[in-house]
Structure prediction request, 316 residues.
Amino acid sequence: MESTTWTASQAEARRLGGDLVTIDDLDENNWVYDTFTPLVADAGGLWIGLNDVANEGAFEWVSGEPVTFTNWTASEPNNSGPQGAENFAHIVTKPFLNFVLGEWNDVADNAAMRYGVVEVPGFIQNGSFETPDVSPGRLFGFGDSIGGWNVVSGNTAFLIDQVTNTGEPVDGNQFIEIHGDTIQQTVTGLKVGQRYKLTYYATARTLPDYFGSGSIIATIGGETDHYDYFLPSGSYLYNSPVSPWARRDVEFIAADTTASLTFSGTAAGPLGAIDAVRITAVPEPSTAAIFLLGGMLGMAIRPKRNASAITRPLVK
Prediction:
């Protein structure tokens, strides 16, 4: 195994369908530290998802979850170090200066014997639409499969990459437009009677012939959510940034161990799009499986109060 940078670890996390870990409380922090530190005896730290790349001093989780807990060691974060801007947080795993083991420090984006802990939400396949990798964008039609999603109606489901179309995805480098299309996947691993929350992000753009009102309709577990939008002609035109992403949350109770999840877009009006689709259990604990890439050196299971079926590999 080799240590790696924060950005390389996050890129690997996205490839796996997740992000560097979000830590919600001291119990979870201690569990991550206690579980992984013995597996990498040479580690100087464990990368977590907290960073202030976008706005110096305003740390945020790369997963987009709100920051409700921090565990900085004394005098940190201080954005001070020999290698320049310290924009990335890690859990301290090796004695250094006056740092307290298990607490957090901000550092520059360098390997320095640090390993990333990855959190992969369960239930949803390809929720960030990173598979397949397309450049430029690619159209999908009825009967096509998009990395776990099935196109069940329409012929204009458009997988868009960021570089070609100034896409500004919520997660990763791609998102999907559904304009008169319906995509579906069967969600598995649910617990009968458990309450779950579907989270997704929605937006829209216009073309000269496509403006006005439109909707994206999400359906799961007998619940339906409508994201309705209105864009006047000439606003948020194609090949320009999308309109602001709107977070949508839909709660449902599982009636079976599987459920059909669908997203449908209206054929008229602007071109609607979605990204960052996830399902989490609320509020009961669920299971997290942990393994170490580069060989199954260790595995651990723990309750996590606000997430479900989470696999956290330790990135090489």
Notes: Confidence is low (pLDDT under 50) at residues 284-316.
